[in-house]
Amino acid sequence: MANCADKFTMKREKISKEKIIAAFLEESFRNTIVGTSLSDIANGVGIKKASLYNYYPNREAIEADTIHYCSSILFGVSFVPKNVESGAKSRSARSLLCTMCVRFFRIFQKSPHFLALSFIENAKLFSSKSVEISRSFKRSLFFETNTAFSALKSAGKIKKIADSEQKSLAELFSISLFSLLLDFISEKQSAIRAGEDIALSEEKLVRLVSDFCSILEISPKNPPC
Questions:
Q1: Residue 33's pLDDT is what?
Q2: Could you check whether the bond before residue 112 is cis, i.e. omega within 30 degrees of 0?
Q3: Is-contact 119 67, C-beta < 8 A?
Q4: What is the mean pLDDT of residues 191-209?
């Protein structure tokens, strides 16, 4: 069993590693992963480059921990609310889907979420683990979208379509949503590199939801977003 001194050391090391990861994410978002040096990371933490080796044996170990951290951030996000069944009964499809999409984007408007997704997508160039994480995240988004569509169908808010057609539409919706999210993060990255930032624009999200509501034959009496 570890003594008190060991526990203190472990806690201090954990906090220090988190700061190193945070600095790596910030610097790589501005300069790209490949363009971020160990000196950049150390400067971001406020330590000397040599001090990094007190916590990590090499750059590859930092990248591995950063990828693991990003994975935990991404899979901690839920697109569909827990009360989606009750929400589908009390709200129109447009209203529910718009609310879900805007909430989802607002999560990724903040750090560390947009940093984590950007890092994973860029790390796919050299990391098979990042490729796997990206695929799993998109697959999870598809499953959650299909869950929302099922709730809306059960509540009579969309037409009764075959499960296969519903899954196809859910997949297309989730792919489109993810594409918009990457576009938003790319725009945010360009703005931050210029010393600015951008606000979330809901127009594209509303258009996406409206397009799919038309496909799903939402009743005209249902109010817009």
A1: 97
A2: yes
A3: yes
A4: 92
Q: d(Cα 186, Cα 188) in Å, to the nearest integer?
A: 5
Q: Is the Cβ–Cβ distance between 205 and 173 less than 8 Å?
A: no
- Please name the amino acid found at residue 4: C
Chain-centre distance for alpha carbon 176: 14
Q: Which residue reads 């299909």 in tokens?
A: 146
Instruction: Indicate whether 9 pLDDT > 60.
Output: no
**72 close to 119: Cβ distance less than 8 angstroms:** no
Q: Are 137 and 75 in contact (CB under 8 A)?
A: yes
With helix as H, strand as E and coil as C, how does the chain read?
A: CCCHHHHHHHHHHHHHHHHHHHHHHHHHHHHCCCCCCHHHHHHHHCCCHHHHHHCCCCHHHHHHHHHHHHHHHHCCCCCCCCCHHHHHHHCCHHHHHHHHHHHHHHHHCCCCHHHHHHHHHHHCCCCHHHHHHHHHHHHHHHHHHHHHHHHHHHCCCCCCCCHHHHHHHHHHHHHHHHHHHHHHHHHHHHHHHCCCCCCCCCHHHHHHHHHHHHHCCCCCCCCCC
| Rounded average pLDDT over 166-176 | 98
User: Comparing C-alpha atoms, which of 104, 123, 118 is closest to residue 187?
Assistant: 118
Look at residue 2 in the predicted model and tell me its pLDDT: 43
The reported pLDDT for the residue numbered 16 is 76
Residue 143: predicted pLDDT: 98
Rounded Cα gap, residues 106 and 122, in angstroms: 21
